[in-house]
Here is the input.
Amino acid sequence: MTGVQETPFRRVRPPSYELTVQPGSGVMFEIDHDAGSEQSPEWHINGDSKGLSLGPWFSTYHQYTGNEFWQYTVEKDCRVTAVLDWDGAGGNTVAWTINTDSAGLAPPQIRDTRPSTAERRILEPNTTLECEMDVTDPDGNLDRVVWWALAADIILDITSVSGREDTARITPSSEDIVQEGVTAWVISENGLITSSNRWAFARPDPDSQFTITGVETNSPIGGGETLEVDATIRNTGRESGGTLVDLIIGHDPKRVSTQSVGADPGEETEVTLEFEAGQPSGGREVFPGRVATRNDTHDFTIVVTEDDSSDGNEDGPTPATFVVQEMTTNSPVGGGENLLVETTIQNIGDETGRTDIQLIVGHSPQVEDSTMRTLEPGESATFTLVFQAGQPSGGREEFPVMVDTGADSATRTVAVVSGNEDGSEDGPTPATFAVQEMTTNSPVGGGENLLVETTIQNIGDETGRTDIQLIVGHSPQVEDSTMRTLEPGESATFTLTFQTGQPSGGREEFPVVVDTGADSATRTVTVVD
Here is the structure.
């Protein structure tokens, strides 16, 4: 390093020559590149070269701020040096001495995110998607948040924060981001840094199918209270995707609440929709509600009573009113088999009553089964309605089935697959291995093991064996695999492993895929220096 000259004016962050931090702290080093050099700096830790500020994120940051940066996790005392204009004989440097002590400065912390980074939302065209988080700094040195659009490698915004605790938010357009989502760097005045988990998104996919598998409400409620509708949504399609989930109420239907959800094939997610009820006319009001995805609907009944009525029956008792509380099926079934629809009906009125409960089947609706039931006020009953399926056209057929009480109804989409009376016209379905779940321990450090835990299920009718592979990287390579034998319906959970290398530029993101031959699932993982 003979001939190298110190040029302190280039130093931006940390602003001081020497800094004491807690072990394990991430520090972001910045220099004012526009102060004179046309080259990217080379970064050294204790004299050892760690690379250049080259790559999409480095160039984007430089274009946005005019500064070059490097990130490093400090585990022990070290000297960090940026070398500019090095020609083999000399150049300019900027250096920091970083000491470690348990009483030193600590990185900022992310206390809460809204929505949760565990929630995946759908990227509907021409919409905005707010990301918000509460951030803290134990030393009161909050400075700013850098918001990144992943995969696109662009900075969406840099927002200011200050003091010991603050809230940062951004509202990007859906046109500015992609499915990989948004992440954020929280940086203190001294350069200590914490990265958020990513907000992931999904785009509508024609091969994703979102079925409503359950709906619960807090009805009946009083006038002025909030109706809460908890819906469970399952992606029954073949591809990952997203959907809007709408709450629609009233005899003159009106959409009152909407949320977006995303899910992988076979994955379930829960969403809560809310509506503030007004005061009912006549002391008590009963009206329909509906939860709807782009593929499915679930109807229910809402009861609102007047708060200042002693018993909610100002105009006399409400006649017997039969609502569908729950509806499940044994779909899919084989051609010629019985489709069983189990339903729970409740009388939410004030009088005992009797009604005809019907099973209505098909795109051209036909009543295929019915039962007469008498229920007392508040009483519930569970029973089964039956429809014998015919042979489907094209090997598989999907159609709606509805339970209707006259006052309320619920609908499900069911499937019939090729088969005779025993569902085996074309023989049993071979062993088919589906990826039910996939999680990772990302982010990990360079040289550490990336662990991918996955649950595989044989959804076929026969016992089978397959090679389950872990495929890594933008230029895919098989890095681990295991042979598994599973009986029909059997699931197994196991871990695949990949030892990471040192990331270029201090941070690297890439996809990992679990592939069974018949199904696959993908996650984006992060490796940091």
Residues 179 and 232 are 22 Å apart (CA to CA). Residues 1-9, 308-314, 420-425 have pLDDT under 50 and may be disordered. The two ends are 24 Å apart (CA to CA).
